[in-house]
Specification:
6-stranded mixed sheet, Rossmann fold, alpha/beta, 10 strands, 9 helices, globular, about 15% strand
């Protein structure tokens, strides 16, 4: 009887494309896939998925993770972030040690600092098992229109709040390696779009960049439409993943280590392949991580190949050991 139940469970899980186990991160992956399917159905809708807030308390306890805020000088408002500190950070023998830091840009629009924070469970497992080196991860709040500046809206400069305010706050508050050589950037979906735009705009700030599952087809349309994503949403002309790459290619310094990652079952798979061909045409070097049978899910990609993404950052960032 027990064997029949187990067989039925495995058959059901195989039907959705991969076998799930009843572990924390894998259940999170299942939930994320369901959320992504809903988001895909709503793609193109002009209404936000949820009311935006600059501060969103952490509702679950995750090893090494804490929620904090800082006061934004430009808005005079508190802004939330989640930070993962590896266990090495608090050990007495590491009291004078500084750690590399990776900033993680969430998916969704709008999102929040808690949107992708459950990835920290997988990150913690890899570090504790010795499969990845100890690094700090900061989960960013991307603003009302995720990771974009919207100067015509009040308190909506998501990119500037991250680049010009959050990064200096983190460097002043925690034992980070406060330079390009110790700072990485990563994100998935909307966060992959943001990672790509920001890495090409500020290559002097980041020594490692890993955009994942980005919607480059939409960014291409924005490029070709003078900043217009839709009738109701217009961005700064030239600030998209295509035009930013073109500008960087004119003077590709400092050299920017790039890892593009995407799942073959994700709805952005083909446009990521097209974007890689575009980078090839510009002679911009990059590495790629194609995750077989992975859907549009950062959680599944981290379960399958998170070690490889973390190893990429570690190879590029000083202090990762």
């Amino acid at each position: 009887m027990l064997n029949r139940i187990c067989d039925q469970r495995l058959l059901m899980f195989s039907f959705v494309g991969f076998a799930l186990t009843l572990s924390g991160p894998t259940l999170f992956a299942q939930q994320e896939i369901a959320q992504q399917k809903v988001a895909q159905q709503k793609k193109g809708a002009s209404k936000p998925e949820a009311a935006f807030q600059w501060v969103n308390p952490l509702k679950s306890r995750l090893a090494g993770v804490q929620h904090a805020t800082f006061n934004s000088p430009s808005m005079n408002l508190d802004v939330g972030y989640c930070i993962y500190l590896p266990s090495e950070y608090s050990k007495p023998e590491s009291a004078d040690r500084r750690f590399p830091v990776v900033y993680y840009l969430h998916g969704g629009r709008p999102g929040s600092e808690t949107k992708s924070v459950k990835l920290a469970s997988q990150i913690h497992q890899y570090i504790e098992a010795g499969d990845a080196v100890a690094m700090i991860y900061v989960f960013v709040n991307g603003g009302p229109v995720s990771h974009y500046n919207m100067p015509e809206q009040p308190n909506a400069m998501g990119e500037d709040v991250f680049v010009k305010e959050l990064i200096p706050h983190i460097d002043a508050t925690y034992r980070t390696i406060a330079s390009r050589e110790g700072r990485g950037l990563e994100g998935f979906s909307q966060g992959g779009r943001g990672t790509t735009r920001i890495m090409f705009r500020y290559p002097e700030l980041f020594g490692s960049a890993a955009p994942g599952g980005a919607g480059h087809e939409t960014e291409k349309r924005i490029s070709e439409s003078n900043g217009r994503e839709s009738e109701n949403l217009v961005f700064q002309p030239g600030h998209n993943t295509y035009d930013r790459a073109r500008e960087y290619a004119k003077n590709p310094t400092p050299a920017l280590p790039i890892l593009i990652h995407v799942g073959t079952k994700g709805f952005n798979y083909q446009n990521n392949l097209a974007y890689m061909e575009f980078l090839d045409s510009l002679k911009i070097p990059y590495q790629k991580l194609i995750v077989k049978d992975a859907p549009h899910s950062a959680a599944v990609i981290y379960e399958k190949n998170g070690r490889d993404i973390m190893k990429f950052h570690a190879q590029n960032l000083n202090g990762a050991k």
